Amino acid sequence: MIINRYIQRSIYLGTVGALLLLVILALFFTFVSELNDLGDGDYGIWQLLEYLALSVPGKVVEFLPLAVLLGSMLSLGSMASNSELIAMQASGVTLWRMLGGVLQAALLIALVSFLLAEWIVPDTELNARKIKNESRQASSSLERGLQQSSSLEVGQGLWLKDETKVVHVSQLMPNGHAINIKIYHLDELGRMQKMIRAERAQPLDGGWELHEVSQTTLVDGGSSSQQFVSLIYPGNLSHELLQILLVDPRHMSSRDLIAYLEFLDNNRLDANVERLVFWEKMFAPLTIIIMCLLAFPFVMGSQRQSNTGQRLLIGILLGLSFVVIYRVLTQLGTQLGAPPIAVALMPNLLFFAIAIYLLFGRGAQGRGLDLLRRFFRR
Q1: Both 228 and 317 in a single domain?
Q2: pTM confidence score
Q3: Same domain, yes or no, for 86 and 155?
C-alpha cells in the first residue's frame, strides 16, 4: 500500500540519519582514545583509519536499536506535526494499518541488523583487532614473545610458529581454551622430530596444559607413541599473545557461539555468561522491533505542540532508560541465578508491555509525551 510505503520510507530515512549521527559520534570518541596509541610501533594514521573503518559494522549493530527509536520518533513526529497522520486517520486509515507499516519497517531493519551481526561483524572486528595489534607489536610489552612467535590463520584453523615448533589449533575459544591441537617439533633443518596431538588445552603462563594427549616421536626411521592424560607445553604462547588472537563472544556469530557453548558444556565449564550473550544476540532483532513500536505512541495525539528538540530528548531518555534497566535486570537476574534466556528476555518484555499500554491503554495516547512535556516545563 502507498501509505505503508510512505510511512516505511520516513522511518528508514529517519533511522539512517540518526544512525549516521550516532556512528560518527562513536567513531570520533574512538579516534580520540586511539590517539594515545598513535606512533606505537607501526601504528600510524592509515592503520588508525583502517581500524576505524573496520569498526563501523560493529558500531552500526550496536546503535541500531537507539537509532530506530530516535529515527522513528523524529520521522513520524514530523509527519504528525505536519498533520499528515491526522489526515490519514480522517481518510479512513486505522491505527492498526499505520502500526502495520511501522512494524514492517522494523522487521526489515531487524533483519539487516541480524545479517550484519552474523556475517559481517565477526570478520570486521577480528581484522580490526589484528591490524591494531600487529601494527603496535614492534614496541609493545609483547615484543619479545611476538618476535619468537607468529601466527597465520588458514581456513578454520590457526597456525602458530613458536621458535622451532609449529602449532596448529582447530578452534581457539574466547577464554583461551583450544580444541584439537597439534604441535610439531622441528630440528634446525626443519625436519619433524616429534608430533603432539591433544583434544583440548587450557592456557597457562607461557604455555598450555594439554589434555588427552597422544605423542609420536620419530626415532631411526621409525616411530614410537605415548599416551598422556595431561601434559604441560612450555612455550612462548603467553596469555597476552593469545589475547590478540581471541574473539570476544559478543562479536562471534550464533553458529560459533553454539559450538563454543557445546565445548563448555562437554568440559563442564561455567557457560552462563556465554549463554546470556547468545540469547542477547537472538533477541537483538526483537529489541529493534520494540524500540520502533515504543516510538509510535509518542507521535500520536497532540504532537503539533511538540518540536523536534523535545522528541529527540524523549527518544534519548527512552533509549538510556532501556540501557539502564537492561543492565540492572541483567545483573539482578544473573545474581539470582535466573535462566539466561529469561534474563535476556525480561527487559524486552517490560518495554513491550509499556508500548502496548501507551498504544491501547485507556486514554494512553499522548499521555507519555504530555507527562514528559510538563516535567521539562517546570
Answers
A1: no
A2: 0.77
A3: no
